[in-house]
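thread: overnight batch results

M.L. [08:02]
morning all. the overnight job finished for the chain we discussed friday. pasting input first so we're all looking at the same thing
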Amino acid sequence: MSFENLLRPGYINRMYMRNRIIVGPMEKSLANLDGSLNERYIAYARRRAMGGAALIQLESTYVSPEGRGNPYQVGCHGDHVIPALTRMAGEIHAYGAKLAMELHHGGRQASITTHHRQPIAPSAIPSTFMDPGTVPRRMTGADIRRVIADFARAAERCLAAGVDMIHLHGAHGYLLGQFLSPQSNRRTDGYGGSLDNRARFPLEVLAAVRQVVGPGYPIGYRLSAAEYVEGGLEADESARFAVMLADAGIDLIDVAGATYESMSKIFQGPEEPKGGFVKEAAAIRRAVGDRVPVSVAQRMNDPVFADQVMEREGFEYVTLARAFHADPDYVRRLTEGRADRILPCIGCNTCANLTVARTPAGCAANPASTYELSRDSYQSSPARVRVMVAGGGVAGMHAARFLGLRGHEVLLCEATERLGGQLHYLRRALPEYGTLVDWLARELDDLGVRIETSHRVGIPEVSEAAPDAVVVATGALGGHLWAGTQDRTVPILDIFSALERPPDEWEPDVAVIGGDFAACRVAQHLRRSGVRVHIIEPGASLAADGAFTGLLAEMELEADGGVTIHREATAESITGDGVVIRSRGKESRLDVSSVVIGGRRPGSELSDELARSGFAARIYTIGDALRPRDLYAAGQEAAEVAERIDLAGRAGLLRSTLVNPTTTG
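M.L. [08:03]
and the structure it wrote out:
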């Protein structure tokens, strides 16, 4: 496939675009505490420019101190940010890409714990997603004029730094969108009431920025096509506002959607269909006609799908954020005719988890993302070592790949007949997770990594292979959260067996014992199969180990009428009639036909055996074999153990005397 719609060049105002793919804005918790950029962030953006991106947006960039949402968010609120921003623009331009800054004010969605000021908003209405006890202060006329001036001054700084384009962030329930939304704007003056009045503030911000940058400089606007909250902005008013933007001379409308109160729409996961906002963006495309280019965001990462949607709906651009986070070479692989080698974003939202936790937003699929300074390129080691990797799940596959990239001799052994580990089970429920396994398998094949499936590793196998190092990545075992009395006539499954079971084999009612994130994933899968679910959780919250995505899962399950959540409850016994539970001192029986027992425990038997045997080679245990966690931990530990083995080999601390032929003349 030629991907003509994605790869043809174009213009936004007078700015040349070498293709039609925009790197979308995405907070990454990488900036300095004063909002300025650092070498790590510059390396991240440079790598996407090297990979062929046409236009790189960094992230929502606050223009006023009280509009900040994250202590490590990029700012454009003072002249001190200009030098590093200038360096970034130069680095990006050197590789043929353009740089855009998305100017932003959080309004009532700004974090009081970050800026220690009362948030401001069109009306004194708190966001239910934020601390509902934090009521924002209603903006006065002076506040409105000051914030407009802050946007204009931020635009001046962008010009001074050589930034190519400015985007105004009017989506996701931030300040510009708060004025536009009837749910958050209850003003009775000239900035509230009718759509014309609610649109006044964002249009005045646009006018102020236009006055700074001039008519030939491109300005884009990110618009929530709908907010998906009661009383919020609907698609018809968004389309009418898009026409107002066109009348005001906007150069690009980037269509997104939702607010913090409909957060799952912002971070749509792998269970959601592709192109989450295509329908809404098409309505805006029709409303503005050919007057303004339109780009569409949200799960457009499949290039075949994206190209077809552009052709069908007439979109000039697509905006990809998480896809570029996973694979900085997304465009390069398309232009080289290797679309099948794009490292897939699996939609797991690990990046969002980490950002919300205010730690650098790495990637579960790509352990090198945001670590470009140390993991972007690899040199073959002059001391080639023999490494046995036990376990062909994600941790083992990543470790084998990173070792192979350094030229080491790697044997990967998997006890079952297939690679993928836990993702083999999860791909039935979430097929996109399986694409990561497929990608890693192709990479290992290219690197010449020797793979032996149906090969369980024990002391004899390790002794026979005589490796210099052993990486134990044997994963986790399921079903340890409950071990009470049970009637064997009732089917009892662990989470892995539950994921593998075909949908038509389930009875109508199932109990899930345990409410950790993995168990909640199983519950979501069962609901998509039409099964009614009881979740029995001894604590007060579900999916507490899932961080931000766990919260989204809990919200989804709470809103699902086919799910009954029993908090602060324990399963006492499994009988032929169902499950007997105890909650707050009272017993009751759940009439269910199958039971899934949640929980995982480390599959550390091989590590224990090797430690007891006194085996001479170095032993490294990673991933769930060390402690059950998530894909991100598996990838990070795989990258780290490859670095440690490589350094040990270079330092002569491993016994191998092999010479790597790729380092000799």
